[in-house]
């Protein structure tokens, strides 16, 4: 059991390094399997937050994309399954890295979006252009994207370390 857990953490570490070894602008993370896992939560956030006004409807995508892994991690933590909580935290970090190219693209509007268009092709369609524009922070798009990418990397690394420590403690307890 401990070997399987450590092997899975090694896989997450490899996946993390693959994500972090590419530039934000390459949108490598947006072409990975987990992007397809994050996307339904992102889109559901737009629907769930729509009664709260246009700004929160737009922000709701990113909010839900980040909130779901947090809820998963807290749920496992409350059940004292710290290994699973660490994997949930890793997912949060991966999801933060997944947000980075979208935020970084706010001014350029070059990323292909759901619907097959880019933000520069359709007005008021790119979440981060809308949010940062309304906040007067559009020129901060690269900095915000970099923050999400770097913070995601730190969160993924911390989660892997925590998961490894939990696994090793469990192994030690089982042996002695």
Structure keywords:
0% strand; mainly alpha; 6 helices; 176 residues
Q: How would you describe this protein?
A:
The protein is mainly alpha-helical and 176 residues long. It has one domain. Helices cover 73% and strands 0% of the residues. The protein has six helices and no strands. Helix 1 runs parallel beside helix 4, helix 2 packs across helix 3 and helix 3 packs across helix 5. The longest helix is centred in the last third of the chain and has 35 residues. The chain is elongated, with a radius of gyration of 18 Å.
In short:
This protein has helices spanning 2-20, 33-49, 54-78, 82-104, 127-135, 141-175. The protein is mostly helical and 176 residues long.
Strands, helices and their partners?
Layout: H1 2-20, H2 33-49, H3 54-78, H4 82-104, H5 127-135, H6 141-175
Beta-strand percentage range: under 5%
Helix content: over 70%
Compute the number of strand runs. 0
| Rounded average pLDDT | 95
Could you spell the SSE succession in H and E letters? HHHHHH
User: How would you characterize the largest beta sheet?
Assistant: none
**Secondary-structure content class:** mainly alpha
Query: End-to-end distance, in Å?
Result: 16 Å
Cα-atom Rg, whole angstroms? 18 Å
User: How many alpha or pi helices?
Assistant: 6
In the predicted model, the low-confidence regions spanning at least 5 consecutive residues are: none
Overall number of domains: 1
Shape: elongated
């Amino acid at each position: 059991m401990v070997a399987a857990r450590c092997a899975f953490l090694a896989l997450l570490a490899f996946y993390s390094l693959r994500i972090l070894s590419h530039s934000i602008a390459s949108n490598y993370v947006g072409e990975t399997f987990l992007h397809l896992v994050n996307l339904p939560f992102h889109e559901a956030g737009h629907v769930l937050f729509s009664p709260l006004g246009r700004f929160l409807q737009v922000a709701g995508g990113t909010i839900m994309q980040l909130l779901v892994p947090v809820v998963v991690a807290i749920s496992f933590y409350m059940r004292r399954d710290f290994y699973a909580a660490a994997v949930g935290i890793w997912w949060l970090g991966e999801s933060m890295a997944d947000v980075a190219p979208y935020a970084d693209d706010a001014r350029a509007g070059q990323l292909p979006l759901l619907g097959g268009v880019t933000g520069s092709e359709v007005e008021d369609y790119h979440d981060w252009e809308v949010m940062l524009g309304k906040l007067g922070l559009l020129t901060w798009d690269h900095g915000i994207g970099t923050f999400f990418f770097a913070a995601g990397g730190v969160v993924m690394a911390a989660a892997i370390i925590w998961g490894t420590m939990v696994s090793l403690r469990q192994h030690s307890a089982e042996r002695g």
